[in-house]
Amino acid sequence: MDLDFDVVDLDEIEYPEEGETAPDFTRPLVNDEYWEDESLSSLCADSDRVVLVFHAMDGAFPATYVWNEIRDRGWHEDATVVGCSISTPYAHKRLLDERDIAGDYRLFSDPGNGVAREYGIDMDLDGMAGLEEPRPAVFVLDGDRTVEYAWVAAEWPDFPDYDAVEAQL
Amino acid sequence: MSDPTLTLYRLQACPFCERVVRKLDALGLEYRSRFVEPMHSERDVVKRLTGKRTVPAIVDEDTGVTMSESANIVDYLDRTYGGDTGGAA
């Protein structure tokens, strides 16, 4: 998109890079029928490749765009693909329905944003007092949670390089 | 994380579900919690298991038992896991 003004640059930050081990965490993981506590490490243990997508809160247009794109590209056929946002499990259930991704994708619920802080990608939200959420980010992990690919937004808003992620799958 | 063999299907803030949780805790049983939606029509997973859409419902992989209704569940847990464990071989 060509804009005749600068978009917001985000500060440089440190996050898990390629070759490093992504922090483990446990949060409610929402599928089309229920949610239960699940750890990232158990997802990785069950799959050769996990794509962890941090996105804006459900309902914000970036969340809608990201999931439409991932759905249309069918990433679930090549990897276990999970999202993470600060939205509640109830909101996640709606997102799964509305994006028509129920059954193929699951979403971690992290209203406290602790996972994003663990990954070093937490971001305050101007004009929404007391709220923070993850920067948009994508981590491709192997079965041991080793980072094979990492992308973290440098601008706000910003969207993943979908082709670059897909090249890893 | 360990993989408990008891699974409790529950609804947030449902007193019947909390009754079962209290019993599970009292008996020191490990269990996994799966939360479903308030709308009955959204509870196909429970219907598939028990034939009904009500919660609480439990699945006990050790015994093969699947059951709903909190009073039944509490009785079942007491009968199955509430026995005197002191010294018996």
UniProtKB/TrEMBL annotation, chain A:
Signal peptide: none annotated. Keywords: Redox-active center. Coiled coil: none annotated. The keyword Zinc-finger does not apply. Residues 16-169 form the Thioredoxin domain. PANTHER family: THIOL PEROXIDASE (PTHR43110). This is Redoxin domain-containing protein.
TrEMBL record, chain B:
Signal peptide: none annotated. Gene3D superfamilies: Glutaredoxin. It holds the Pfam family GST_N_3. It comes from the Archaea. Residues 4-85 form the GST N-terminal domain. PANTHER family: THIOREDOXIN FAMILY PROTEIN. This is Glutathione S-transferase N-terminal domain-containing protein. It comes from Haloarcula salina.
